[in-house]
Specification:
Distance between the termini: 58 Å
Number of helices: 3
Order of helices and strands: HEEHEEEHE
Largest sheet: 3 strands, antiparallel
Helix content: 25-40%
Strand order of the largest sheet: 2-1-3
Number of domains: 1
Shape: flat
Length: 131
């Protein structure tokens, strides 16, 4: 009698274990966040960018290193996560930078911000993460 009870419990445990495994295998893995950044120097017009970094800090560091290679006075203009960033530059190196879920949104917002400071704004750089 005890062996029949144990056999039933073992079968139920085996079925439960298989069911949990099937459910876990069917669940999509959460993709890691991806970060990007754009750096800009109003003084020189130099810029640098990054995308698909594992952290905000790493993305900003890379954008700054790249920008600094082309001139002094760089600063982070925009950073973004799982999206896009854009930099618009106008008269006298007036600028605006923004982020968005799409390239079009980031560019539109960057141009809008730039135009609030200066005229003749144009997109100088856009960049998107893979996700």
């Amino acid at each position: 009698m005890i062996s029949l009870h144990l056999k039933g419990a073992a079968t139920a445990f085996a079925i439960l274990t298989i069911a949990i495994g099937v459910l876990a295998a069917g669940a999509p893995a959460k993709a890691a966040d991806k970060f990007g950044a754009i750096a800009f120097s109003q003084k020189t017009g130099a810029h640098g960018f990054s995308y698909d970094y594992q952290s905000q800090g790493a993305a900003q560091n890379r954008a700054m290193v790249e920008c600094d290679q082309y001139g002094p006075g760089c600063r982070i203009a925009s950073w973004f996560k799982n999206g896009c960033g854009a930099l618009a530059v106008g008269t006298g190196n007036g600028w605006g930078a923004e982020w968005g879920n799409t390239r079009a949104e980031a560019e539109r917002l960057a141009l809008q911000r730039c135009r609030s400071h200066t005229g003749r704004c144009q997109i100088k750089r856009w960049v998107c993460t893979a996700r």
